[in-house]
Amino acid sequence: MAQPQGIHARRAALRLLDAVLRRGETLDIAFAGATKDLRKFEDKALARAIASEVLRWLTDLDALIDSATTRPLPDDAKARQVLRMMLAQWLRLGTPPHAVVATGLDLLAGGRVAVGRRRLQRRRSLRGRVRGHGGGALGCAFCFRLEGSIEFS
User: How far apart are CA 83 and CA 62, in angstroms?
Assistant: First the structure.
């Protein structure tokens, strides 16, 4: 099965976030190690942009995730990291929804999570705080499998 375009940059962004949030490294120090497998400058730039936006908007992204979950996700859960990345790409970087979902699915590799877009979009108080939010821009729900029984709806 072919991997989605840009998945290597997103994996590098996930490694960057892990290094910064779990190991306490700075983004600049973690960058070289996390992107060592990337050859293209564009992929390295995308990885850094995703990680930077997640870190910049971490509190707001977590509030969006927590407002849409029936059970809280641990702060260091891979699902939370991937959802943060997906939301940052969609809300801040303007990545098309199909690319956000396709790469998010691959990063989670077989788990089940369903995030209802309408529920996230109804969070008007948060929506106003996250600049660049395009209300109806998301054409589909984030629906995929995540190990465990976490349900977002």
Answer: 9
